[in-house]
Amino acid sequence: MKLCTLVSGSSGNSIFLSHNGTNILIDCGVSGKQIQNSLNQINVSADEIDYILVTHEHIDHSKGVGVLSRRYDIPIVASHGTWLGMEIGEIADHNKIVFNENSQMDIGGIGVTPFDTPHDAMQPKGYKFDLGDKRIAIATDIGHINQNIKDAVFGCEIVILEANYDEDMLESGPYPYHLKKRIGGEHGHLCNVEAGELACFLVENGTHTIMLAHLSKENNSENVAFSTVARILDLGGIKVSKDVKLGIAPRYCTSAPIVI
Ligand SMILES: [Zn+2]
Ligand SMILES: [Zn+2]
Question: Is the separation of the CB atoms in 23 and 43 below 8 Å?
Fold first, then answer.
């Protein structure tokens, strides 16, 4: 199993997951050329991608999806609502995989279970992956943590978790009022503190690796996100490095791969 983020943040998101010979991209929010460059960094060629899963239609998740699918004949997996919302050009029928329910799907031998996320898109999803005895969850673009999210990520060993903004930085930052309201709202993005609280819950239930992702460029920094989450973990008696590996997904380059 190999997992890494390729790009992360509002300028584009994409995650690479490989297991038992199946290579999946989760989102492709940069151009076809950029994603090829990112894949080159991890010695994967774009024609080796077997599936593209899309979490939701926002451009930072869908920009290169259509191009990649057409160029390399790659099937796209997305919720019904995401298909309606995505503007990715013509996609061949045989490359359209649509789901409506959150039941487990078999994607190239990997068990994939979607879950609902509170975010201002048509039918946004997070994904949980069952890889034999290991489980991974990808939970970004979440306005707030609810029981549904907790249930979905519960028991996953590895979680890629949004830590979008620091509340004070968002408040005092340059964004116009309506944008501040959107990001901080129930269906916007997740703040560092809530990420920290979910991180506590996760580690208490067996998660050993958390990668913070989708950090805002204006309203967060790697240091602020890391130290906020580490402090909340510490308050819960959890030591970073000893009890949990805590990483940050870089904005423009690939993260260190998580390999099992
Ligand atoms: Zn979004
Ligand atoms: Zn996003």
Answer: no
**Angle formed by the axes of helices 65-72 and 32-41, nearest 10°:** 80
- Which 3 state secondary structure label does DSSP give 160? strand
Return the number of other C-beta atoms located less than 10 Å from residue 73's C-beta.
Answer: 11
Read off the pTM: 0.97
Query: Closest-lying ligand to the alpha carbon of 10?
Result: 2
Q: What is the DSSP string of 224-245?
A: HHHHHHHHHHHHTT--BTTTBE
Question: Which tens digits make up the pLDDT trace of 21-79?
Answer: 999 999 999 999 999 999 999 999 999 999 999 999 999 999 999 999 999 999 999 99
**157 alpha carbon to ligand 2 midpoint, in Å?**
23
The CATH number fitting domain 2-259, selected from 3.40.50.720, 3.30.70.1130, 3.60.15.10, 3.40.50.150? 3.60.15.10
For residue 86, give the 3-state DSSP assignment.
coil
CA angle 140, 143, 148 (to 5 degrees): 80
Amino acid at 205: N
| CA 12 to ligand 2 centroid distance, Å | 7
Question: How would DSSP label each residue in 45-78?
Answer: -GGG--EEE-S--SHHHHTTHHHHHHHHT--EEE
